[in-house]
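User: Please predict the structure of the protein below. I'd like the answer in structure-token form so I can feed it into my own downstream comparison script.

Assistant: Understood. Taking the following sequence of 426 residues as input:
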Amino acid sequence: MNAGTLRDLDRAHLWHPYAGATPPEPAHPVAGADGVRLTLADGRELIDGMSSWWAAIHGHNHPRLNAAAREQLDVMAHVMFGGLTHEPAVRLAVRLAELSGLPKVFLADSGSVAVEVAIKMAVQATGRGRLLTIRNGYHGDTFGVMAVCDPVNGMHHLFTDLLPRHVFADAPPCDHGRHLGPAGERDAAPPDPAYLAHLDELVARHAPELAAIIVEPVVQGAGGMRFYHPAYLRRLRELADEHGVLLIADEIATGFGRTGEMFGCDHAGVRPDIMCVGKALTGGYLTMAATLCAEEVAERVGVLMHGPTYMGNPLAAAVAGASLDLLAERPWRQEVGRIEDGLAAGLAGAARAPGVADVRVFGAIGVVEAAAPVDVAKVQEIVMGHGVWLRPFGRLIYTMPPYGITPAELAAVTDAMSAAAAALPA
């Protein structure tokens, strides 16, 4: 099909995420992807500054990941996981247990499902029914998970009356990472004693009814791309231990090196009782996620009544194993550090634009926060004109590029973001 036919048929039949179906917003047909670049059906090439929603950390069309998928396809594409097992899933579980220090691995088929499973584990293990989380959080779009997303600033306010009522702490101060202002970069702020006291009081007050505390470690993703001090996560771990509450770490966005550590929890030096991983797990090839837990949690849960049809899918597990092998071999810490420095240097000018409220960088994450909600179509037109693909939301123009992006490609991304920032209304 040519690009025009693809667009017409897409508009007639496909419903895209976070969008209306009538009328649909424009979607740009992609003909191929290789390395950090997307090739559109009209021939244009764009740098994928999103790692295709934070998943393609090794880039697209990677020969090692391609080979893993092809080799597994010749053996078996899928087999049910109830009463059966297979080598790709076993190998993957061993790797995840070694990386996380959590020996029990429940394989799921999406990040939202992984968090649903974590909630079920916590409720069954404790016999309690409420969770504590922090505002500005985001954990997915299914019903149990929506209940622990921000109830006011999140995307799920339409369903508030249908959701369980959990306990929400105030959002932590967004004062970690590298913040760039008109006068230059400022140091990260120390932890706020008043916020630590707020956490102490709230957990103590609700502890008898809490099954778990659930947070995104150090970085709040789709709830605002906010970076918070690891001391708050350490205190939540201490409070969970003091009050006999479990700690769930949603590492779906932060896992596998994105923040400069393997997991966000590593910045705080803590191990959660339950951890959710996804997105980058398969390097952006196939949908797969996992919920990992400590031995004592698994013993307390007993039988977990959950079983996705494609749980432990051999194709996805084989590619995930190859992706983790590739991550272990590449100098990802140095790559992420280089990306952080490049983002800080390249976005410094954007901090001086009149319509910008904040510019911040942490690991391989760069954020331009506008003073008002951005015009997504206009921003995408500007960045695509610079040969870059980004997907803004709310007041945020941000990037989470693949780890192998070159300095020149990264400069193109920051130039595009800076041009979009300069076009924001004052």
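That's the full token string. DSSP finds 13 helices and 18 strands in the chain.
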